[in-house]
Amino acid sequence: MRRALVFSLFALSHLLTAADKPDVLVILADQWSPRFTGWDNKEVRTPHMDRIAAEGMIFDACYVTSPVCMPARVSLLTGLYPHNAGHGLWGNATGYYPKPEDAPMFLDIQRAGLTTAQIGKTHWTAGPAWHEQFKNSGAFFKALGLDHVADISGPPDSTKGRDPYSQHLQKLGLLQAVADDLHGRYVSGEFAPRASVVKAEDYHDVFTTGLAVDLIRAQPKEKPLCLVVSLHSPHPPLDAPGDYATMFDPEKLTLPANVPEKYLREGRALNHEKTKRMLANYLGKLALVDDCVARLVEAMKARGTWDSALVAISADHGEMMGAHGYLTKGRFYEESVRVPMVLRWPGQIKTGRSKAPVQMMDIYPTIVEAVGGKLTPGRFAKSLLPVARGEKDRIRPIAVSEIGDKVPLRMMARDDHFKYWADEEREYLFDLEADPLEQKDLSTAPEHRETLHAMREKLLTHLRSTQVNASAGYKPKVQRLREAEAKSKQR
To answer: CA–CA distance from 413 to each of 125, 338, 380, 485 (Å)?
Structure first.
């Protein structure tokens, strides 16, 4: 009787634990520089994300595994670095898609009992390469472990768009106007700031958020939900809609000291005045993202799970915005390779800030641990919860990033103090504590020679310890035969 009672209590406890799994909301912005977070920059207007950050843990040293869209997003999906088998993407590419067996994030979460969904930009694929294995995109997404998907890459620059947003614009009679506007921007320069041709209520991120809100409302309350909302903003083109386009006065904005007074990009002469105009529109798009976040929060509150939900906010990469004379991404400077990272989970993690080196892809195992799931073996992403709970001060010695389309490929390493990288021509070294804007390269300074060697060694050690080993666990035939013989005798 006592044994049966203990078993019943265990079973009941297990059922309660399953029922109490938290909802998970992941919000990904696109091309969001950590220089422009409301918790660090008073000129930024993101009160809703600021409130979430104040209620959670801010990770100040979060880096993407590659400072461009596709490899960073594929790392989140796979838990792997670009140099790993099962990833292999060192930049944006054509004819690529992640194999489901290599990309188990949503499968791991789904197996833990959650409904899985991604609304907005996926950008795991380039072209219809998945046709090699699947009849249609629905079959591909299902194999990845996704219950619901609305893939919206961003504003359409073609009238042939078949995604839900293009269809929405078609119904409004706006698709041709938007496609023409976007095509012109991409050809003449996507950093030319001017308002979108659509009103704010018809802007792509607002539409994407509406789909996400609808999904939250439709989700059965007894079934926990993991929802990734991937917005396109503040990624160029600089086309903030409506009032967002005029929300910021360029003359009142401040540029970081590493933005040159004059610089040349793609044959265009730029200066502080023009850069501030670009920044004003960029911040307008970021303010729109924040308002979208507010709608998601309200939907979660109406669902009744906001106070127990795990929330992660981050981005796929940053934006240079004139720093060191560059625009866009693809570089190892802080503006491009570092991203915001906020984790909020009331009653489960501490509030405050951490300087631990982490990677954006760490969101994946963090979710799996939080919902009581089992992480697929062979992942190099690590859960952030030990740091967020105050159990550890770090989960890895360095954060790394990789990019390149020709040999030698470029790699970066960042520890608590220094950042090191090597490109096709030379090495770089920066003291991020003394020089956070990376204005003084120390790679040739005699007094920092040992530090340069030490950082190079840390990167080499990382490469040696993060390899996918297909022979792991192999037993020679003789050993297998002996073990089989021993088992047969035991019977």
So the answer is: 27, 12, 15, 49
